[in-house]
Amino acid sequence: MSITVTMKLRNESKLDQFIKEVHRPGSASFHKFLSASESTENYAPTQQEAQAVADHLTRAGFTNVQIAPNRMAVTAQGTVGTARAAFHTSIGHFNVHGRDAIANTAQVEVPAALSGTVDRVLGLQTLHRPQVFSRTPKPAYTVNSSGGHAYYPKEFATVYNAGSVPAATGTSVAIVGWGTMTNSAADLAYMTKDQGLPSIPTTIKGYGGPTAGATGNDDSGRGEWSMDAQAIAGVSGGVKSLTFYTAYSNIDSRHPRGSATNAGIAAAINGAVSDNIAKVINMSWGDTNSEVCSGTSDTAWLDSYFKLGVAQGQTFSVSSGDNGAYPCKAPTNGAYGDKTQPTVSYPATSPYVVSVGGTTLNTTTTDSYISETVWPYSGGGLSKIEAKPAWQTTVSGNYRAVPDMVFDADWNNSPIRYYMAYVPDSSTSKGSGITQSGYYDNGGTSLASPLFVGSWARLESAHGNSMGFAAPALYAYGTTMPVHDVTSGSNGLYTAGASWDNAAGWGSFDISGMNTFITNTPGFVTTSNQH
Fold first, then answer.
1. Nearest Cα to 482, choosing from 449, 526, 514?
2. Residue after which a domain boundary falls, among 92, 122, 152
3. Residue 149, Cβ neighbours under 10 Å: how many?
4. Dihedral angle sign, alpha carbons of residues 334, 337, 342, 343
5. Of 423, 386, 380, nearest to 402 (Cα)?
6. d(CA 125, CA 289)
7. Last residue of a domain, one of 52, 87, 122
């Protein structure tokens, strides 16, 4: 088994104050984001504190013990027996819908000397795992019975009016997921060449595996990761680089659906923060069981990483979910769950990410924007755990409200059409389900989030990567910035109306209009963006 010991932030109250100041126009710290070394030096555990955790794991019998470069995570490999002894807990075996899983059945304990620096231990349970917010890709169609049509990736630049805004070739982006990303990188390369887009340098970095950099053979998420990458490429017009940060996941007789765990996912996210290369990071997945359905034990398990990313000027974009206001106990994406328990999905509820919901898109035959309505299964609502962030001042209540923005998501009426190649071994034994090479249609808020990523990357690139975490400015100028205000449709509980709401957030970008607005709004950008 793979574990990740997540570490507590040091000087967290000072970090909280810095994050407020770095987003406050007029502050001496405004948009002076930290470098990776500065955030580590000021807010991560010391080398001695991280080493003490590593030493404890080594003494307990764990192997391949590694301290992350920013010291915010310590990863290791071990057995269930090793974990039981190291953390003075009991771990049981369970069967969940035909899948073998484990979970600790007693509170985790660490030595008293480490309690002040250890946040939590991940990897001791595999009952609840994040899921992608899309469906199985469908072979491309011409039009459906409702008269909708699919959009090739580059068409979204026309739909959302990129106009003369330069491509995002000065901005690096990333995707966080699990399993092998090799085929998705190849799919992206084919699509960009086929559609006349600039080629994009890609890198794949694996976390949580038995050896350094291992990703596993799980290709079941390929329909997701390929869609993410190609949506970003299309609406951005091309980016400087794309890094796939992937948690190890292997398909074998013991793990027919893959072996990804929260341990690997946390390590992958921290990798994106520690590297501090990507300015905008996509996460088209979430855990629909993390709040109402199964309590609060794992809620906010990634917030420390996101918070450091915000201090560094990074924006994490997260899909809001594909079950409307009712993800709890939903049987599948594109369906409602228990209507007595409206809730929202983490990590979209984190106050340190941008939560992106979905719409049904309506355009002319030449892709000119007409309107959007709320996709009925777009996630949205109020967190029961995460407090309302200071920048969400225009929203009533005391808890984090989502979504922040929306983009196209309707896999029936306005899907994306993207490329995937048939790879025999991947298709038959590694879960991709792709039976022939060609273009496929898909959607969900898993499409909406990368559309935001590509749009924001384009705007960041046009302004020297000086804007940082998007959410504070989006709320500060939400009532005046040029967006498509989505005023119709419902997600099963919340109905869209004028301005911000739990169904459609602020709406979607008019990229060209936003670019002009940002240029003329000093509170959005500065000329100097880093210490």
1. 514
2. 122
3. 18
4. negative
5. 380
6. 14
7. 122
CA-CA distances (angstroms) from residue 1 to 5, 63, 84? 13, 10, 12
Same domain, 347 and 457: yes
| 211 lies in some domain | yes
- Check residue 299 and give its pLDDT: 74
* Same-domain check for residues 117 and 162: no
pLDDT tens digits, residue range 495-512?
Answer: 999 999 999 999 999 999
- Find the catalytic residue in 39, 134, 383, 446: 446
410 is catalytic: no
Options 155, 187, 224, 501, the catalytic residue: 224
Of the residues 49, 155, 187, 228, which is catalytic? 228
Per-residue pLDDT for 297 more than 50? Answer: no
pLDDT at 289: 61
pLDDT at 128 over 80: no
**Residue 224 annotated as catalytic:** yes
- Domain carrying residue 245: 131-519
Q: How far apart are CA 296 and CA 434, in angstroms?
A: 37
* Residues 6 or more apart in contact with residue 445 via CB below 8 angstroms: 133, 284, 319, 320, 321, 322, 356, 357, 358, 375, 378, 379, 409
Helices 182-194 and 222-236 pack at an angle, to 10 degrees, of 40
The domain that holds 302 is classified in CATH as 3.40.50.200
Count the domains in the chain. 2
Does the pLDDT value for residue 531 go beyond 80? no
For 204-255, write each residue's pLDDT tens digit: 999 999 999 999 999 999 999 999 999 999 999 999 999 999 999 998 877 8
Cβ–Cβ under 8 Å, residues 339 and 374:
no
What's the pLDDT tens digit per position in 426-481?
Answer: 877 788 889 899 999 999 999 999 999 999 999 999 999 999 999 999 999 999 99
C-alpha span between 295 and 436 (Å, rounded): 42
- On whether the CB atoms of residues 417 and 137 are closer than 8 A, the answer is no
